[in-house]
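Hi team,

Filling in the usual template for the complex we talked about on Friday. All components are listed, including any nucleic acid strands or ligand strings, so the model treats them as one assembly.

SUBMITTER: L.P.
PURPOSE: interface mapping
COMPONENTS: two
RESIDUES: 567
SEQUENCES:
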Amino acid sequence: MDMFPLYNSLRIAGISTVIVFITGIAAAYNVVKLPRVIKGILDCIFTLPLVLPPTVVGYLLLRLMGPRRPFGAWFMTVFGLKLTMTWWSAIFSTSVVIFPLMYRTARGAFESYDITLKQAGETLGLSGPYIFFRITMPYCKTGITAGTVLAFARALGEYGATTMIAGYTPGKTATISTTVYQLWRTNNDGLAMKWVLVNIAISAFVLLIINLVEGRRSRIRTV
Amino acid sequence: MTLSVNIKKSYPGFTLDVSFAASSKRIGILGASGCGKTLTLKSVAGMVKPDEGLISFGNTVWFDKAKKINVKTAGRNVGYLFQNYALFPNMTVKENIAAALHGAGIDKDRDKAARDILKRFELWDIKDHRPDELSGGQQQRTALARIMACEPKLILLDEPFSAMDMFLREGMRLELVRLLDEYDKPVVMVSHDRDEIYQMCDHIILMENGKVIAQGDTDEIFEHPLTPTAARLTGCKNISRIERINDHRIKALDWNGIELITDEKVTEKITYAGIRAHDLIPGEEGVNVIPCGRVMISRLPFEWYVTLENGLWWKTGRDLDDSKALNVLPQYVSIPPEKIILMQ
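RESULT (copied from the run log):
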C-alpha cells in the first residue's frame, strides 16, 4: 500500500491549519471590535465557505488561479510556478473551506472574553501584544483549541474543492479522499476499504481530542 | 492636583454631560445606577472616548477634543479598580502583580519588588493561588496591590464593594481606607451607596441622568443639599413641595398641608422642604408638632420605619416592644425648626 496519500493529506491539512489558525484568529479578533453593520457584512463573507458547496469554492479558485486567469498568469510570470494541479494547490482550497470553522469558534471565544481584562492590562501599562498573547489568548484557549482541532479534522476530509484545483495525480496530488474516489471508480474495492478505515481512524481520533478539550471547558465553567 | 473634567458623550437614549473640577484627595461620585458615573470614570481612565470636551489632571491634558489630544489609557498612569476586580484568571496572585510591575517598567529586581508588595498587602500566603480560588476580600486586596505596583498618579475605584457580601463590606471599607491612606494618592471613587461615599470622600459630586446636579464638600452637601434630587441621593426620605407663608413659615403641600416653622430664612426661591427620617422626635412638646394618625410600620432588624398618616417617614430605634407597638407609638411627633432642609 502506497502511503503517499496519507502523507499528502496530513501535510496539506497541517499547513492549512497553521495558515487558518493565524488568519482566522486575526479576522475574528478584529471583527469583534467593529461596528455592528460592518461586522455583519464581514461575518457573512467569512462564513460563506462553510455553506457553499466545495465545488463552488473550487470553481471560484480556478477562476482566480488558473494558468490563464489574471492571478494565476501573473504568478506564473513572476515566480514561474503554476498555482493549480500541484500538491500545494490543495492548500488554497483546504484553507478557504476550513477558514470559517476557525473563524467562528475563535469569534465566539473573543465575544465571551471579559473586556475589562484588556482594560485592566492597559491601565497597568502593559503593551498590546503582551495583553493579547499573555491574557487574551490564554483566556480564550479552550475555544481556540477546539476550533483548531475541528479545522484540522475538516481539512483531512476536504474533497470537492481540492479535486477541482489539485486534481488526482498518484504520487503527486493524491490525498486520502481523492484516492478513495479513484479506487472505487476503478473497482479496487479492497484498497478503497483500507483507505476508508484509515480515514475513519484519524477522524475518530481527532474528534476524541475535541471531546476531551470541550469536556475540560465545561468543567471549568462549573467551578 | 486638580482633576478637571468637562465632557459630553451621546448614546441613543442617554447623554452624558458632566463638568466638575476637584482638587481633593478623596473625590466621590454618587448617583443611582445608570446615571453615568462609571462612564465618567472610564472617560477619565481613557477607556471611553468622549464626543467632545476636556479632561486634565494637574498640568497634564489627557483629552482635548479641540486640540485633538487623547492620551491612551496606558499613558495616563491611572490605577483602576474594576467592579469585578479584573484579575488575570490565568495568572497566580504573584504573577498578576509581576505583570503590573512589568507594565510599570520594573524589570530589574522585579521578583524582590513583587515580594515586597505581597507582604505589604498580606498576600504572601496566597501568592500561588489563582483568582478563582480567592475570597472576594482577597481578590480586592490583590487588585489593589496590582494597582499600587504601578505607582499610579491617580486611583479610580468603580463601586469597590458592590461585588462583596454585606457583612464583609464594613471591614473592607476600613481596610481600603487604611491602604489608601498609606499610599497617599488622590482617589476618585464611584458608588451608589451614600454611606460609602460619606465615609471615604471629602469632596462629592452628585450625578443624575448623565449630569452633575451638585458638588462640593461632603459635609456641606449632606447637611444642606440644594435640590430635591440632591437631597434624595444623600438619603433624605421626606421631601415635599411647599408654599411660602412668611420668612420662617412654610406650608408642606405633600404632607397634608401642615404648617412648619423653620430656622433658616425662607426666600422666594425655595420650593421644596426636606426632613430626614431620623430627625423626627416623638412627643408633643415644642414647635412643629405633627399628628401621627394611622401609621404603618416597616420592621427592620434594628430599626423601624414608621409611615405617618400624612406620608412622612420616621426612622426610630427598635426600643419599642414589638407586641405592644401600636399602643406605645406616640400620638404626635415633632421636628425641630433647625432640622428642616429648604431647597430650590
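MY TAKE: Chain B touches chain A at residues 45-47, 72-74, 76-80, 82, 84, 86-90, 99-100, 102-105, 132, 146-147, 149-150, 152 (CB under 8 Å). Chain B has two domains: 3-223, 236-343.

Thanks, L.
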